[in-house]
Each structure stands twice: as structure tokens, then as C-alpha cells.
Amino acid sequence: MVEYIPVRTYRSDEELPRQKQLAYRIAEVAADEVGLTDEVVDTVINRIIDNAAVAAASLTRTPVVSARSQALAHPYSPGATVSGVPVTEHFSPEWAAWANGVAVRELDFHDTFLAAEYSHPGDNIPPILAVAQHVGATGHDLVRGIATGYEIQIDLAKAISLHEHKIDHVAHLGPSVAAGIGTLLHLDVETIFQAVGQALHTTTATRQSRKGEISSWKSHAPAFAGKQAIEAVDRAMRGETSPTPIYEGEDGVIAWLLGGPKVVYDVPLPVAGEQKRAILDSYTKEHSAEYQAQAWIDLARKLHGEHPELVNPDAVTRIVIHTSHHTHFVIGSGANDPQKYDPTASRETLDHSIPYIFAVALQDGSWNHVTSYSPERAGRPDTVALWQKVTTVEDPEWTRRYHSNDVTEKAFGGRVEIELANGERIVDEIAVADAHPLGARPFQRADYIAKFRTLAEGVLEPAEIERFLALAERAPDLSADEVRQLSIVAKPGLLATVTNPKGLF
Fold first, then answer.
1. Where are the transmembrane segments (predicted)?
2. 383 and 241, same structural domain?
3. Which of 12, 144, 316, 474 is most buried (CB neighbours < 10 A)?
4. In terms of domains, do 22 and 154 share one?
5. 452-457 long-range contacts, Cβ below 8 Å, gap at least 24?
């Protein structure tokens, strides 16, 4: 059972008791010592495996190397592990969370939840795990902390739109990580309340990081939120306080960064004693691309098999994708970003370009996290020719389904209409990705393990793959020492193939 918390701006001369502030209610949820269902625990395990998979695949990518080199400059005991580095080496937990967060986020390949706001709730795992390793927490407390992180981020995403006001989605992540760490550490409500407020205050930023030429900061932004949340918890534990009320204040987040004084947000939070189940509403990615691209990749590979003539740009007059407002205006032609049609654009830009993604998947009948984004693939003349013929338009019905609170009709796809040079038309549609819980082939534990094995191949030794999986599948029963082993170690010599950049540290 959930309670909808009305959240609005209050003038400074209006009374708003602390117990009715959103940050305080979040803290109460985090401090509630309720247990978890078996289904939630199993899903937490799946997402730990999923995060490790995409982190493994990104270990030698430039942003990950950079973030890892910063963490390596901060050795600490007891500390936390860094992805790729031997588990016997430990680093300051906030820097470990930073490095691991970038590794998880770099390929845009882990889980998602989309509602009023977008989110990648798996971003909660690196900072919560880093703190668990640092303090010597058990697997039981780790899983509980992760479940809280998911609960709070997803509940906030259900109610409060950030992108509408050009605020980046990690503004929901800072509070959720702080809450998750609060659960992990069994902190009291007041301490968590102060940490949540500080985490929100320090993690609000604009969406320019996802507009135009998308830079490597996109992979750093969630890691920064996690790092800031750890530091916020540390300060709160030392007795330091937060701007209050952080959401509702006259000069607070709602008043000036979001909807303003006239807007009321109804945020759903579990009532006291209610189990935290929000993780079950999230879904992972089968393909390394923006989540709204998942269903379109699946439809494109289906059309590739059914209509092989579509690989030839000369056979196609135009391709129009009818889809939701978000897909059209953020990753479609409605964004009016010329970079989305630029063969020399960055990988980060291409994975936010539905025209590019659909064209490549249509031609290849598949998607690969490396080759589908290579400069050679993006610059292929026949691909460029087909790519330029793909546009998107908003369809009100697909927008309505995108925002529906009914999980049985909520959709992230749309309808494609393809006009051929011979006058024929091909029309098809897809509502959700194949891997979605309501899709053609919903992801199960075996799929997460297969994804991990695939992405870890050539990166981790076979024995290391088995060692990590054996630990991850026992996550809720791990001892404190075993939690400290819950990391991936690159095969010998792999990390030496890249050069650590030099900075201040």
C-alpha cells in the first residue's frame, strides 16, 4: 500500500512541519526495517549481475579509464573495491563509487524506469555497494539498501518530472542513494533526512549534458550524484544539516527549478510497514542504447528478416516513426539536433539518435555495443543514405501510453511507416521491447547471466566470471568479507593496455 504525499511550495511564513516534508517522508521509508519479498531479492541479484556485465564491457573505454585513475589515486583502508582492480586493493568509498558508477553507466546498457521522469535505478548500486564494503556490511543489509534506493528513485520518477524543466534526471538519484545508504547503515530518520536534503541540493544540474553534442559527462553524471550522496551521508552522520525544506521551500527546488509555486506533485511512497517493491517496476536493456530505442531495435531486426529489400537505401523513399513525445523530441528528429544525423557524431550522441539506431538495426538485423557505434559503421555510405530518410513524429496515442500508470498498457514503442520506391508501403508497430516484462522474451536470471558472460568474455578470466556469479547469486547471504569480494577483476594485463590520464591527483 502506498500513500500519495502532496508536495508543493510553501512561503517562508507558512508552517510546514518537518514530518510533512518530502525529504522527511523519504527518510521514514528508508528507516523502516521492513523485510523484502523473495521476488524483490531475486531482482536485486539480477541487477547486480547486470551492472557487473556492462561494467566489464566498459573497462577500457576512455571515460571509465579516467574515472578509475582518479579512484586509484585515493587508496584507503578499509575502503571499497574498484571494478577491474584486484579485490585485495581498496580505495576511498566515494571515489570507488565514482569509478564504478562511470563503468556501469558508460555504455547506456543497464536498467531503466520511465514515467513522469526518466531514470536508470541501477545507478544506485555502485555507491551503496561501495559504502557496504567500506563499513563491513553483510549481504542482507546490502540488498535492503539497494531495494530502498530503487524504491525512492522510482517513486520520485513516477511523480516529479525533471526534464520538463530541463533538469537532469540524476536530481532524483542523489536523494535515493542517500536513502539507500541510510537503510544499509540503519541510520535514524533525522540523519537520513539531512542526508537526503544535502544530496538533492548538490546534485541538481541542467539537461544540457543530454542535448546537442552529447559528451562523456553523460556517463559521469550519475556517478557524481552517487559520490555526492555518500559525502552527504558522511556530513549528516557528523551532525551537519541541510537547507530545509529542500523541496518545498520558497527558494527551494520546486519553486525555482521545477513547476513553481502553483504546482502540486503527488509522490507515492510506501506506508509504514509496507515492503519496498518498486524495483519490480523497472526493466533492463537487451541492447546498448537509450531505452526508448530498445523496442525500435527489436522491430528493426524483425523487419530485416521479413523484408530484406529494406537494407538498400535506393529501395526506400522514406521511413516515418510515429512515437511518443519523449522519443520524438529527445532522441528523434523533433530534437532538431543536426548531430543526430551526423556520421562523425560521438557514440554518446548516436545512442540518442533513433534515426541512426533504426537504420543500422534495419540493415544489420542485430545490434552490438561496439560495432554498431564504430566510426566505420556510422560512416558507411549506404547507411548514411538510409539514415537520412528516417524521421520521427509525435503520435498522441503513443504519448498517452508512454505516460500511462497502467503497466499493462504502458508502452515505449510506436508505429513505423515505410514507403518504398516501387510505391509499396510497409507498416508495423511494437509496444515494448522484447526483453521487457511484457515483451516477447522477458529477461530472466538466465538472460542476465548470459548477458554477463557475453560482455565479460575476453575481459575477465573464465574462473573470475564463475567466482563473481557464485557470489552475486548468494548476495543476501554474503558475509561482510564476501561483500568485499563482490567486484569484478580484469584478466591479467588488460588494464595495462590503456594509459591512465594525468590530473591533479
1. none
2. no
3. 144
4. yes
5. 452/49, 452/50, 452/52, 452/53, 452/56, 454/53, 455/53, 455/54, 455/56, 455/57, 455/369, 456/52, 456/53, 456/56, 456/57, 456/488
